[in-house]
Design a protein that fits this description.
Elements: E1 3-4, H1 18-25, E2 31-32, H2 35-44, E3 48-54, H3 65-76, E4 80-86, H4 107-125, E5 134-137, H5 139-142, H6 147-154, H7 160-163, H8 167-174, H9 181-184, H10 186-201, E6 203-209, H11 213-227, E7 232-236, E8 249-250, E9 253-254, H12 264-272, H13 279-286, H14 291-298, H15 305-321, H16 323-338, E10 348-350, E11 359-360, H17 361-367, H18 374-382, E12 386-388, E13 391-392, E14 399-400, E15 410-415, E16 419-425
Parallel strand pairs: 3-4, 3-6, 4-5, 6-7, 10-16
Antiparallel strand pairs: 1-2, 2-7, 8-9, 11-14, 12-13, 12-15, 15-16
C-alpha cells in the first residue's frame, strides 16, 4: 500500500502519532508506503528511522536538509535515528536521475569525505538532548559479502523485470545512455542496507528524497520477503524555489554545509537572500520555530519581511554551525546590508590571480551566484540594478582590477536592494 500525501495535509489532525502530525504540519512528507500502519507504529512506542548519504563529496549541502530535519524531528519526539554514511555504496554509485555513471572513488577519498560529512551530521543530529543519532558506515556489512553468497541470499528476491520499471533505470535507458551492471545493482545494495539495519538495530523506517522512492520500496519488499519484517518508507518533497530552481543550487554551485566549503557568513547570506515567496515554507521546513510564530512571520510584508529572513538565516545557521558562528554571521550580514561598519569575513572568495588580466563584471556577478549566465548578468547591469562598492555600474564590459579593491583586498557587489556580497581575493 502506498500513500500519496496531498499538498495540504489536513489528515494530520486525524492521526494518532505526534510524530506524523508534526511532519505533515511541517510539509516534510511526500509519500509513505503505508501511512496508517506507520502512524499506528509511531503511536505505540519508539521507532528507529534512518537516512543514508553516499560520500561523493566531503560535505552535504542544503538539498540534504529535508531528510536530516525529518530525522531531527523524530529524535526530538522520542524516536531513534540512524545516519548511514555510504562507505560501501559510494564505491558503486547511485544511478538515480543521472545521465552518466558517477565517477568511482578511491577508498582514501571516500574516508576523507565521510570525515567531512560527519561534522555536519553530528552538529545537527548529535545535539538533540539525550537522544543523539547513531552514525554507521554500510561498508561494515557490504564489504563482508562474498559475491555468490550475496546473490544466493538476496538476488532471488529481485526480478530484472521489476527493476527495469524504476525511474532511475528507465530514465537512463530511454535516453540511450549506458547503465553498468555495477550501477544496476545499486538498488539491491540499498535494499540490503535497510534489511541489515533492521536486523542489527531494529530499524523500521527509511527516510529519503522523492527520487529515492524506488530504492526505498525495494528495501521494504526485501524485509518482507527475506525476513517477514514489516518495514516502512517515507519520502520528503523535492524542494524548489518560487522560480522553479532546485533548492540548494546556485549559479556558483551547491550551498555546502561544511564550513571549509562555504563559510558560515556565506551560508547565512544564502538564507537571508531568500525570495519573499519562499519564506513561509522555508521556515516550516528548515527551522524548529513554533507554527504560530511561523504564521506570524509569514504574514509580514515589504521591509518587515526582511526580519523574517534574518530569523530564518540565523535559525538555520545556528543548527548547522552553532550559536557563536551564527551570531558572527548575522553581525557580518547586517554590516553588509547596512553598508556600514567593516565586515571582517567575505561572503565569497575568488582567486586573486584573476585580477592582473582583469575580471569581467559579468563573470563576477555569475561567480557569486547573482545570475546564472553572462547574458542574465548583462541584463541586470543594463537595467541599472548592479552596484560595485556602492556605485551603480551600467557598463557590461566593465573589468574588475586591483584598483577596485578596498580595505583588506575586498569589494562589495550588490544586485537590487536584497542581494549583496562581500568578495575577497586570495
Amino acid at each position: 500500500m502506498t500513500t500519496h500525501i496531498p499538498p495540504a495535509a489536513t489528515s494530520a489532525t486525524k492521526l494518532k502519532s505526534e510524530a506524523l502530525q508534526v511532519l505533515l504540519e511541517r510539509g516534510l512528507v511526500h509519500q509513505c508506503t503505508d501511512l496508517a500502519a506507520l502512524d499506528a507504529k509511531l503511536s505505540q512506542g519508539t521507532v528507529t528511522a534512518y537516512a543514508g548519504f553516499d560520500a561523493t563529496a566531503n560535505s552535504l549541502h542544503v538539498g540534504h536538509l529535508m531528510p536530516l530535519m525529518t530525522l531531527r524531528w523524530l529524535q526530538r519526539l522520542g524516536h531513534q535515528s540512524i545516519v548511514v554514511l555510504g562507505g560501501g555504496t559510494s564505491q558503486v554509485g547511485d544511478p538515480s536521475f543521472q545521465n552518466e555513471a558517477r565517477p568511482v572513488l578511491e577508498q582514501q577519498q571516500i574516508a576523507a569525505n565521510i570525515a567531512g560529512i560527519k561534522l555536519s551530521v553530528e552538529r545537527l543530529l548529535g545535539s538533540v538532548p539525550d537522544n543523539p543519532a547513531m552514525l554507521v558506515d554500510n561498508a561494515e556489512w557490504l564489504n563482508e559479502f562474498r559475491f555468490l553468497e550475496f546473490l544466493g541470499d538476496f538476488g532471488k528476491h529481485f526480478t530484472v523485470n521489476r527493476m527495469m520499471t524504476f525511474d532511475s533505470v528507465k530514465s537512463r535507458l530511454d535516453a540511450q545512455m549506458p547503465l553498468t551492471i555495477l550501477e544496476f545493482c545499486y538498488m539491491m545494495l540499498q535494499a540490503v542496507d535497510f534489511l541489515e539495519l533492521s536486523r542489527r538495530h531494529g530499524c523500521e523506517l527509511q527516510i529519503g528524497g522523492s527520487d529515492q522512492w524506488g530504492n526505498i520500496i525495494n528495501g521494504v519488499d526485501l524485509g518482507r520477503k527475506g525476513d517477514g519484517r514489516q518495514l516502512f518508507g517515507l519520502t520528503v518533497p523535492l524542494v524548489t524555489t518560487s522560480s522553479g530552481a532546485k533548492m540548494g543550487k546556485t549559479a556558483a554551485g551547491a550551498v555546502w554545509l561544511h564550513p571549509e566549503r562555504l563559510s558560515p557568513s556565506a551560508f547565512w547570506q544564502f538564507w537571508r537572500n531568500t525570495d519573499d515567496a519562499d519564506v513561509p515554507h522555508f521556515l516550516r521546513f528548515f527551522t524548529e520555530l513554533p507554527m504560530d510564530q511561523i504564521v506570524r512571520l509569514s504574514s509580514l510584508q515589504g521591509a518587515e519581511l526582511n526580519e523574517a529572513k534574518k530569523i530564518l538565516a540565523t535559525e538555520v545557521t545556528t543548527m548547522i554551525h552553532g550559536v557563536d558562528a551564527a551570531r558572527h554571521a548575522m553581525e557580518q550580514g547586517e554590516a553588509l546590508f547596512r553598508e556600514t561598519g567593516d565586515p571582517v569575513e567575505p561572503t565569497h572568495v575568488l582567486p586573486r590571480a584573476k585580477l592582473p588580466e582583469g575580471l569581467g563584471l559579468l563573470e563576477l556577478i555569475v561567480a557569486v551566484g547573482f545570475a546564472g549566465t553572462n547574458s542574465d548578468a548583462r541584463r541586470l547591469v543594463e537595467a541599472g540594478g548592479v552596484r560595485l562598492n556602492g556605485q551603480v555600474v551600467d557598463e557590461p564590459r566593465r573589468q574588475i582590477s586591483s584598483g577596485d579593491l578596498r580595505s583588506k583586498d575586498r569589494l562589495t557587489l550588490a544586485v537590487g536592494r536584497r542581494r549583496k556580497a562581500l568578495v575577497g581575493f586570495e
